[in-house]
Amino acid sequence: MRTPRIKVDPRHSGAVYHCMSRTVNSERCLDDTAREMFRKQLWQIADYCGVQILTYAVMSNHFHVLVRVPLRVGIADAELLRRYHVLYPKPTKYQAAHIEDIAAQLKKGGPDADAWCKQQLALMGEVSQFMKLLKQRFSIWFNRTHNRHGTLWSERFKSVLVEGRGYVLSTMAAYIDLNPVRAGIVDDPKDYRFCGYAEAVAGKRAAQSGITAVVGDENNQTWRGVHDAYRMRLFGAGVPLRADKAAISQEAFEKVIAENGTLPLATVLRCRVRYFSDGAVLGSKAFVAKYLTVYKRQTGHRKRTTLRPLPKITDWGDLVTLRGLRKKAFG
User: Fold this and answer.
1) φ and ψ at 190, to 5 degrees?
2) I need a surface site. Which of 34, 106, 155, 168 has the fewest CB within 10 A?
3) Spatial contact of 257 and 237, defined as CB atoms under 8 Å apart
């Protein structure tokens, strides 16, 4: 038995990221067929990379995904080979022969096996590699099926480091699942096939596991209990279940901000809150302060970078953000 290999940067173990990317010129080129393929590849590549999808939303010109990278664990050769199979569910004759050759090398051991394992591990347990592989593989499929060439995405990707528990995590997840509501496509995210909440409601176990991890309530570990708790976050206590009844226009939203007014959280989440996609770190004061200390130590910026509260338009709890930081400071 070979020693299980390890590949996870301990600085990022268990970290949660909200990642987002747009198409070139925000072109609305992702139709239902494309979104269905993206959804399938999302789960496939998450399995290969060993990351957990908490929830996601695929729109016509962009996507959001809330992902947790794994804790530091050993990866046995058999698991590496299983994950490799995941990338090629219907292998060609050449690919099938290549996989058989890899399996033989792993049994025999030696430098060739070590080199292959090292190559695979470099793509696992790291959010940047997960996003790169996801976008590359989808782009190849999209260009081939649409007879086009060149880049599909307008940017590398945006990412926000999110405190991976409690109020912060469920709020971010709800913001992502409510994307189709904000876009006016559906009144209820359960009716939008291409988001994590809808897949969970439809019975996909991996999606249910993601929502369960988001809710994180020991008293609600049955799916029904988890669902009810999360749906309360989506729609809010006392807010009508039809999202259009709870939503407000962008103009009215901006007026409330200008007047320092307050709104129910469930209503605010139906509007675009750029802190959720353009910030660098989002969480409690203690969580963000921890990463602010790391940032200042790495960059030498001692005074001008501070914690920033979100606008007082709703009750955010202990939620603050760290804006304007380079994402690479935290990986």
Assistant:
1) -65, -20
2) 155
3) no
Measured N-to-C along each axis, helices 223-235 and 166-177 cross at an angle, to the nearest 10 degrees, of 70
Partners of 309 in beta bridges: 320
DSSP state of 183: T
pTM score of the predicted model:
0.84
| SS3 (DSSP) at 158 | strand
Phi then psi for 284, rounded to 5 degrees?
-70, 165
Rounded Cα distance between 75 and 88, Å, is 19
Q: Residue 315 in contact with residue 266, Cβ under 8 Å?
A: no
Of 150-154, 175-179, 239-243, 280-284, least confident by mean pLDDT is: 239-243
Q: Is 105 helix (H, G, I), strand (E, B) or coil?
A: helix
DSSP 227-292: HHHHHHHHH-TTS-SSHHHH---HHHHHHHHHTT----HHHHTTS--THHHHEEEEE-HHHHHHHH
Q: Which residues contact 53 (CB under 8 A, 6 or more apart)?
A: 42, 43, 46, 65, 66, 67, 196, 206, 207, 210
Task: Give yes or no for a contact between 153 and 269, defined as CB atoms under 8 angstroms apart.
Answer: no
| Residue 196: closest CA among 182, 186, 206, 187 | 206
Token pair for residue 19? 């990642």
Domain chopping of the chain, boundaries: 1-15+30-50+66-159
**Do strands 52-58 and 62-68 pair parallel, antiparallel, or not at all (unpaired)?**
antiparallel
- The amino acid at 200: A
Give the burial string for 124-158 (b: 16+ CB within 10 Å, else e). Answer: bbbbbbbbebbbebbeebbeeeeeeeeebbeeebb
H or E segment to which residue 133 belongs? helix 127-145
Where is average pLDDT lowest: 84-88, 92-96, 151-155?
92-96
Q: Which residues contact 129 (CB under 8 A, 6 or more apart)?
A: 49, 122, 123
pLDDT digits (tens, 9 = 90+) for 214-231: 997 655 578 888 998 899
